[in-house]
Structure formats: structure tokens, C-alpha cells
Amino acid sequence: MLPITAERLEQLRGFARLERDTILERRAREGVDPAIAVEEIPDVDDFVVSELRTELLEESGRLAEFGLARLAARAGGPDAEEHRRNADRVEFELLREISAASPELTVAVWRAGEHLSPE
Q1: Which of 2, 16, 25, 35 has the fewest beta carbons closer than 10 A?
Q2: pTM value?
Q3: pLDDT at 112 (0 to 100)
Q4: Are 46 and 111 in contact (CB under 8 A)?
């Protein structure tokens, strides 16, 4: 199981806030209406879930394999659907682990997994 202490979660949220604020500032400088930019940029916990998913993939040595499966799925070749299903299944399991380790991230986990079809 993924160990997420309260201190670690707060640290990740701090980094995520900085990343989100930076993206918002860049979008505003590009002329995007701040109200629209705020709606389009993921929430802080969405960034945290993404980071934790990546950390889990790295720790298990599957980050490159996962990335290649996602690319193969987008390429549209004959095995694209199989690659998509396999990557969805892996991501779904990682998201379940994150949610179990840190229930306060559950809503962000649901958002991250809403596009997955692990069957």
C-alpha cells in the first residue's frame, strides 16, 4: 500500500498549488479570461493524484511501459484497443490504491478515473 502521511499530502498539495497558480498566471498573460482559466485548470488534488500515480508507476518500474501502452492506444493500430484496455486496467488499480491510502483524495481519484474502461 502507498504510504501517504498528512505531512506528505500537505507537501504534495503545496507543490500542486504552485503548479496550478503558475499555469493560471501563464494563461492570464496569454489573454485567457481568468474566470475561464480557473474552470479549465484541474484542481489541486487532481495534480496530487496525477503525481502519486506517476510515483507508483516509477516505483514498480512500469512508467515507460505504461507510457508506451498509452501511445500505442492513441496510434490507432490493430492492437490499439487492447493497449488502451491494459493501460486503463493498470491505471484503475493505481487509482484504487491511492484512494485507499488517502481517502481525502477520493473525489479527485474519481475524476481521474472517469474516462477509464478497465473491463
Answers
A1: 35
A2: 0.90
A3: 96
A4: yes
